[in-house]
From TrEMBL:
Family: Belongs to the group II decarboxylase family.
Quaternary organization: Homodimer.
UniProt lineage: Eukaryota, Metazoa, Hemichordata, Enteropneusta, Harrimaniidae
EC number(s) reported in the record: 4.1.1.28
Sorted UniProt keywords: Catecholamine biosynthesis, Decarboxylase, Lyase, Pyridoxal phosphate
Organism: Saccoglossus kowalevskii
PANTHER family, per database record: AROMATIC-L-AMINO-ACID DECARBOXYLASE, GROUP II PYRIDOXAL-5-PHOSPHATE DECARBOXYLASE
Protein name: Aromatic-L-amino-acid decarboxylase
Domain of life: Eukaryota
Segment forming the signal sequence: none
Pfam families tied to this protein: Pyridoxal_deC
Key word Ribonucleoprotein present: no
Length: 478
């Protein structure tokens, strides 16, 4: 396969992608294949001789597309938004072509330097405190991780190391393992499963604290938990607050939690995986007030900022907290400039890293901040349109306040009837949504996901839901 093939096939691929996205609403939002469908469609081992490009491209439709749930179909309303855009796709092509592994500055200086500048651009868009901004002389800076789960884990591990070092200096009789056995981390009962998992991976206790009646973690609950643990001789070291929880897009009380973390000298990490993108809009920025207490902050441009997966933005307030935490320095990775520059290998779990900042650069330049703000506003407006439709029917209720692009709703009545409604909606297949549990209440989550979702799609979704709810109610009454 040479560059002539690439030019020819590449043009066909670009056409295929543009046609796919232009017509994605004609495909079902949820794949209907059965497990194991794919192996029946392709040979059981790799070909000895090359296949023809035409056959490979043809097989995308035959083999792959039936097994795709089309997230960018405007009738896909499950999970949270996931981003894509032509600028992001173009940048990924370039990144793949350059194919550098930017673990150190010298491994490709542009890869490191663009990432530093892009993370500063983003930090300024969010109006993060200057501590996080390299170009403003901050002690910290940003790094692109693959996912919010990795960002939480990296932050937790950095906090763990920091506390172990500190405890050892204060209690010379304790070794690493004594200290580790006493460490405690905290998060709310609403936080994403990846936070609990980070605790499991790092082998530390993780307390899931009870959120209030708005599913928000409050400072007094955290304070009490920390004091109880200290009284038992344990060592509180890490709190993960969530802005925009996964079940209902609730916001922990950052100012209260932040003040407690400061008093107790505990590392505060903020997980704003979904909602973080909205903080580029001045009217939503106040949800981030209290970020000044955080040691680390993360959100996913790959969710709601039109940057294709993967691009999870993590800022650390103090670079040394992360670069000293995982520093192993073999000769083959050393270079002459390493005392003057950032080597992102110290800021993450893997060694290898892709040139992901290209996606941010292309997206931010080719859309501009104003467009991205309008994009967020449109999604929030669409969520409110859906909310109004739900409110217009007394058989339904809105479960939690609609703040971003997520509406939590249900039929008034039992969990069973709502489970039945959800199953009926997804079996019908015209739209796709997923449920969540809020305490013991089964709710339906309606998210604005696809970039091109319009008011017509909201009306359509509501009509489908009404039609199927009537069917479910009828069946339950007879
Ligand atoms: N945190 C929150 C609040 C989320 O909503 C999600 C996913 O939706 C995650 C973390 C996990 O994100 P990722 O897939 O980037 O690890």
């Amino acid at each position: 396969v040479d560059s002539n093939d690439f030019r020819k096939w590449g043009k066909q691929m670009v056409d295929y992608v543009a046609d796919y996205l232009d017509n994605v609403e004609k495909r079902p939002p949820l794949s209907k294949v059965e497990p194991g469908y794919l192996e029946k469609l392709i040979p059981s081992s790799a070909p000895d001789k090359p296949d023809r490009w035409e056959d490979v491209l043809g097989d995308v439709e035959r083999v792959i597309m039936p097994g795709i749930s089309h997230w960018h179909n405007p009738n896909f309303h499950a999970y949270f938004a996931t981003a894509n855009s032509y600028p992001g796709i173009l940048a990924d092509i370039l990144s793949d072509a350059i194919g550098c592994i930017g673990f150190t500055w010298i491994a490709s200086p542009a890869c490191t330097e663009l990432e530093i500048v892009m993370m500063d651009w983003l930090a300024k868009m969010l109006r993060l405190p200057t501590d996080f901004i390299v170009s403003e002389g901050g002690s910290g800076g940003g790094v692109i991780q693959g996912t919010a789960s990795e960002a939480t884990l990296v932050s937790l591990l950095a906090a763990k190391t920091k506390h172990i070092i500190r405890c050892k200096s204060e209690n010379t009789e304790m070794d690493n393992y004594d200290i580790m056995s006493k460490l405690v981390a905290y998060t709310s009962d609403q936080s994403h499963s990846s936070v609990e998992r980070a605790g499991l991976i790092a082998c530390v206790r993780m307390r899931l604290l009870k959120s209030d009646d708005k599913y928000s973690l409050r400072g007094d609950v955290l304070k009490e938990a920390i004091q109880k643990d200290k009284a038992k001789g344990l060592i509180p070291f890490f709190v993960c607050a969530t802005l925009g929880t996964t079940p209902s897009c609730a916001f922990d009380n950052l100012k209260e939690i932040g003040a407690v973390c400061e008093e107790e000298d505990v590392w505060l990490h903020i997980d704003a995986a979904y909602a973080g993108s909205a903080f580029i809009c001045p009217e939503f920025r106040h949800y981030l007030d209290g970020v000044e207490f955080a040691k680390s902050f993360n959100f996913n441009p790959h969710k709601w900022l039109r940057v294709n997966f993967d691009c999870s933005a993590l800022w650390i307030k103090d670079r040394a907290d992360i670069t000293d935490a995982f520093n192993v320095d073999p000769l083959y990775l050393k270079h002459e400039k390493q005392t003057e520059v950032t080597d992102f290998r110290h800021w993450q779990i893997p060694l290898g890293r892709r040139f992901r900042s290209l996606k941010l650069w292309f997206v931010l330049r080719l859309f501009g901040v104003k467009y991205l703000q309008e994009y967020i506003r449109t999604h929030v407006k669409l969520a409110h349109e859906f909310e109004a439709l739900v409110k217009s029917d007394p058989r339904f209720e809105i479960v939690t306040e609609v703040i971003m692009g997520l509406v939590c709703f249900r039929l008034k009545g039992t969990n069973e009837i709502n489970e039945k409604l959800l199953k009926t909606i997804n079996e019908d297949g015209r739209i796709h949504i997923v449920p969540a549990n809020l305490r013991d209440t089964y709710i339906l989550r309606f998210a604005i996901v696809a970039a091109n979702t319009s008011s017509n799609d909201i009306t359509f979704a509501w009509e489908v839901i009404l039609e199927l709810a009537e069917k479910v109610l009828h069946e339950c009454n007879h």
